[in-house]
Specification:
19 strands; five-stranded mixed sheet; globular; alpha+beta; Trna Endonuclease, Chain: A, domain 1; single chain
């Protein structure tokens, strides 16, 4: 199998690709890769990945997209965002390893610890048609489906089994990383990335907490297996934009010591619109709510900036948030290396648009200390929003 190693945001050397390989790459990584024909050669291209990392296979082509950050730093950001998972720290990761291999090692280590005493069992409610009575008869369903027919019986019963949600999550996560179907009596259950179930832990299943949290992290990423004109494609991909946003949101929330109902991510905010008719909807990445009033709004940006200034579109977006929410300003948070700190006072409105850079280097403790400084800025902006504006002269 041919191997192609790419790095996030770095332009590759010329690479020979068949037309179907090129088209599959462009489709799978749509919006997160630039494919340019190399000068002087037919079927040769230079590839520049965006913020999507991971591994994929297209026919006999194996593609690895490594992050610009170290593997250990990506794991820290992702695990913290997923619920401060304590990852296994005995692995010595190399830069040439892809994130899929590393996550597989972590999941295997977590599963060994969780399954050391055997698989967890539990009761699961089943509903099916049987030739004999088991549990209780579902009379309404029996009459609706089989009026006048005595057998089979529509029944409901509780079965004590290892085929429970916690084990399903771990099994499906393993299947996603393996990028192939697991041969077993039961195929892995499919979970949509935005609908991965949560598990309530108690003294009986708390030893599963780590492996379940890691499985949920894996299942919330993008996995696919498809056929494209006879060319098989499969893979596991992580959007670093999402990881960075989720890390900043959770870390700030922890530092501010407020709940997700108070310091909300974009998927939990109330309806915010720019226009009075309510047709132009806005979704800030970060908002702080005091009851029904928003007292802070911000956006989180991991993307690469090519020129010397913050893109106007990002500032316009932040200004729209501040205007619609009637705030004195807003905060743009970039990963350091993408943008330097700055302030922009908007003419005529007086709104202050602040740009902050979060340094992701150093130890996790150092990174969380920088989050503490960022939280102080958020508190200050919230306090300013609470001060009544002076009437115009």
């Amino acid at each position: 199998m041919r191997r192609l190693d790419l790095r996030e945001y770095e332009r590759s050397e010329p690479v020979a690709l068949a037309v179907d390989e090129r088209d599959a790459l462009a489709d799978i990584l749509r919006g997160s890769i630039t494919i340019e024909p190399a000068a002087g050669a037919e079927g040769v291209y230079r590839l520049t990945p965006g913020s999507t990392i991971g591994a994929l296979e297209i026919g006999d082509l194996s593609v690895s997209i490594r992050p610009k950050l170290s593997i250990s730093r990506v794991l820290f950001l992702a695990s913290y965002a997923a619920g401060r998972i304590a990852l296994h720290d005995r692995f010595d990761y190399r830069d040439e390893q892809d994130i899929v291999e590393v996550l597989a090692l972590q999941l295997a280590a977590a599963a060994r610890r969780a399954f050391a005493a055997g698989l967890l069992h539990g009761y699961r409610t089943e509903q099916e048609a049987l030739p004999t009575v088991r549990g209780r008869i579902r009379v309404d369903e029996q009459l609706r489906r089989r009026f006048g027919v005595p057998l089979p019986l529509e029944v409901q019963y509780d079965e004590f089994t290892d085929d429970i949600t916690a084990n399903r999550l771990v099994k499906t996560a393993g299947a996603r990383l393996a990028r192939r179907r697991i041969r077993a009596s039961r195929s892995p259950v499919e979970y949509a990335a935005n609908a991965v179930p949560e598990i309530v832990f108690d003294r009986l299943n708390r030893h599963y907490r780590h492996v379940v949290a890691l499985s949920r992290l894996i299942l919330r990423q993008r996995s696919f297996e498809t056929e494209r004109g006879g060319l098989r494609a499969s893979g596991f991909l992580i959007d670093m934009n999402v990881i960075f946003q989720e890390f900043v949101t959770r870390a700030l929330r922890d530092e501010l010591r407020v709940s997700d109902r108070v310091f909300r991510a974009d998927d939990r905010i109330e309806r915010v619109t720019l226009d009075e008719a309510g047709r132009v909807r806005l979704k800030p990445d970060l908002t702080w709510w005091d009851g029904g009033d928003c007292t802070f709004a911000g956006d989180v940006k991991y993307k690469r900036i090519e020129d010397a200034h913050v893109p106007n579109a990002d500032l316009y977006q932040l200004l729209a948030y501040a205007t619609a929410l009637d705030l004195p300003g807003g905060l743009l948070i970039y990963a350091q290396g993408e943008r330097r700190p700055a302030q922009h006072r908007v003419r005529h409105s007086g709104k202050l648009l602040e740009v902050a850079a979060l340094d992701l280097s150093g130890t996790p403790a150092a990174l969380l200390a920088r989050i503490e400084d960022m939280a102080k800025r958020v508190r200050a902006m919230r306090a300013q929003a609470a001060v009544p504006a002076l009437p115009a002269a």
